[in-house]
Amino acid sequence: MSQLSFEFPDGSVKQFDDGVTSEAIAKSIAVSLGKKAVAAKVDGKWVNNDEPLHKGGKIEIVTSDSDEGLSVLRATAAQILKMAIANDFDNIHFGESDADEDGFFVDTDKPDTQISVDQLSALEDSMHKIIKQDLPIKVVFLSADDAAKVAGDDPYQKELVKANEVNGQVKFFQIGDFQSIAEGAVLPSTGKVKIFKLLSVAGAYWQGKSSNPMLQRIYATAFNKQKDLDADLEKRKEAHERDHRVIGNELDLFFVDPKVGAGLPYWMPNGATIRRTIERYIVDKEVANGYQHVYTPVLANLDLYKQSGHWDHYREDMFPPMDMGDGEELELRPMNCPSHIQIYNHHIRSYRELPLRIAELGMMHRYEKSGALSGLQRVREMTLNDGHTFVALDQIQEEFKNILNLMVEVYHDFDINDYTFRLSYRDPKNTEKYFDDDEMWTRAQTMLKGAMDEMGLDYVEAEGEAAFYGPKLDVQTKTALGNEETLSTIQLDFMLPERFDLHYIGEDGKQHRPVMIHRGLVSTMERFVAYLTEIYKGAFPTWLAPHQVKIIPVSQDKHLDYAKKINDQLRALKIRSSVDTRAEKMGYLIRDAQTHKIPYTLVVGDEEVSGNSVSVRKYGEQDTQSESVPDFIDEVSKDIASYSREED
Predict the structure, then answer these.
(1) Cys staple from 475: which of 315, 344, 488, 590, with CB 3.0 to 4.6 Å?
(2) Do residue 517 and residue 629 come from a single domain?
(3) Does residue 203 belong to any structural domain of this protein?
(4) The model's pTM
(5) What's the domain range around 492?
């Protein structure tokens, strides 16, 4: 019998007979490993534990207690779900399915009526029956013709058969008489899946393209232990309660209308108020720190982005150019930096002007795929809190520190405390995707690292995370659910000043090349509002809240004038106040103010009118307290002025 050679992650190599299974290989290493093994990867491709191997290569044993082992469990559950759906629904078509760290999903299409969320419980019962039978799951290889027969009149499976054909064969999983195209690896029998939950249904375009049919996606998850499922469901509940899309709908902050266009949010008055407050804060903060704010066009000649390199590196993320019919092609800008370069280049610059700081709340457009769009977090139109500083070489580290200190100030005002620093370098093994200048990269990366060391800040170094034109510092924050995302960046750029032939006149009267520093303090307005919405769970601090004070008269006839008088006083101080004039019961109006998470609810009746006072109830508190009108105005004014933080 011929021998197969397998190389293990530690570099060791062993020989096994042709037809050996990954389970047998695992047992040959250690009995305990054999017991925990659930699948393997050979040269990066999944194989079932009991699947005969006829080709050697690099092998990784996947165990049940690993993240990849959990994916195997979920892939198995996905196959069981498919079988249950096929048993329960006639004329059902199957799209894609997948298993990952978040769970698994199965896409379906039914010509008459799609599967609804109300039918998930019955589907779970059907899955439990299949699991109880402990049916073996076999791997079978079908010829292309036989695979096409299995696909039948299912248009999606026909496409998947073609996509998965290798050497005239297609790999299937078979449970009883049910056959499904193999995706990943699965456990040997249905009885191995014990703990799972069907979660929800939602629309999903076939292969993620908006031009394709909309399918029905069933989301689910599976675990090895009940306690892990319980913890996951609790986390999902918390995620739903913090989901900025859910809160955005409840508080009427924004909406996206597919009839107008996916990824193009409409800001309602409440959301616009939050955004406007942030924008005014940012502009004032930047102006106070020496930035000159500008407005630049959202369109530019395509040649500008060819010169900057964006067309070569980001073409797939840019919208198609608009042919103006006279040889000119206009492009919706994906980045603001070329526009700010034009501002710099409009005048002859002197060394006395440096550092020259330019900032803008600049609107940009990205051609995001429909499947990637999500509320305000992933959109096609966005406004970046953007800034570019032009400096001399000997000013780099000082300006870098100034920018970083400004970032920390902003974070403090928004009460953002959980963040880390990441220095992002180019990948030394894949330099062709970056600007070709080794000396520039070495100098820029050394300067960034030197500035961080000089400031005594902790950071991690990440190769392959740099922009194509230079290294950067990424500020990584924790979302409300503990996920990590980049909120702010500072990027050194020696490339664009070279490409655009930027100069300044030095003290010696000669031309010198500036260095460009890109920075964004709080990402885009869209992503930042989404982030804050989830962090605050919709209960925005007073200075950001769209409605800061709600005044409720006990009697519209007797107390309305007094309520309006207080309202006028507050609004004269630019406090966002309003009077609730609805003819509803007092308890309902108070609960409604709490539901809409208004920081201060004031109730005024006979006692308040006679005493020039208000009865104050803060959001989230049950008790009320009586305060004089001047004292309340002083309290709320200080709350807003301190960015709703306890003074340090």
Answers:
(1) 488
(2) no
(3) yes
(4) 0.82
(5) 256-536
- Identify whether the C-beta of residue 485 lies closer than 8 Å to the C-beta of residue 528: no
Domain assignment present for 243 = no
Tally: H helices and E strands in the chain = 20, 32
- Residues annotated in a binding site for Zn(2+): 337, 388, 518
Q: Is residue 566 part of a domain?
A: yes
Whether residue 492 is predicted with pLDDT greater than 60 in this model: the reply is yes
Which structure tokens are listed for 203? 């629309």
232 belongs to a structural domain: no
What is the Cα gyration radius of the chain? Answer: 30
User: Strands 577-579 and 549-553: what pairing?
Assistant: parallel
Instruction: At 159, list the tokens.
Output: 């496409």
The rounded mean pLDDT for the chain is 91
The residue ranking higher by pLDDT, 45 or 430, is: 45
- DSSP letters, 100-113, are ETTEEEEEEE-SS-
Q: Which residue has the tokens 């490339």?
A: 495
Residues 133 and 182 in one domain: yes
Does 383 share its domain with 529? yes
Structurally, the chain folds into a number of domains equal to: 4
Cα–Cα distance measured from residue 194 to residue 381, given in angstroms and rounded to the nearest whole number: 44
Of 63, 93, 114, which one is at a domain's C-terminal end?
A: 63
Q: How is residue 492 annotated by DSSP?
A: E
Name the nearest CA neighbour of 72 among 177, 224, 201: 224
Cα–Cα distance, 198 to 345 (Å, whole number): 58
Confidence label for 424 from pLDDT (cuts 50, 70 and 90): confident
For the annotated binding site, the residues are 337, 388, 518
What pLDDT, in 10s, does the model give residues 379-417? 999 999 999 999 998 898 899 999 999 999 999 999 998
CB 39 within 8 A of CB 32: no
Same domain, 264 and 365: yes
Task: State pLDDT tens for residues 96-149.
Answer: 999 988 899 999 998 888 888 999 999 999 999 999 999 999 999 999 999 999
Check residue 334 and report its DSSP letter: S
* pLDDT exceeds 80 at position 646: no
Tokens at 538, concatenated: 């919709």
- Domain CATH for 59: 3.10.20.30
Residues 186 and 321 placed together within one structural domain of the fold: no
Chain-centre distance for alpha carbon 522: 14
CA distance 519 to 385: 9
Tokens standing for 470? 């230079």
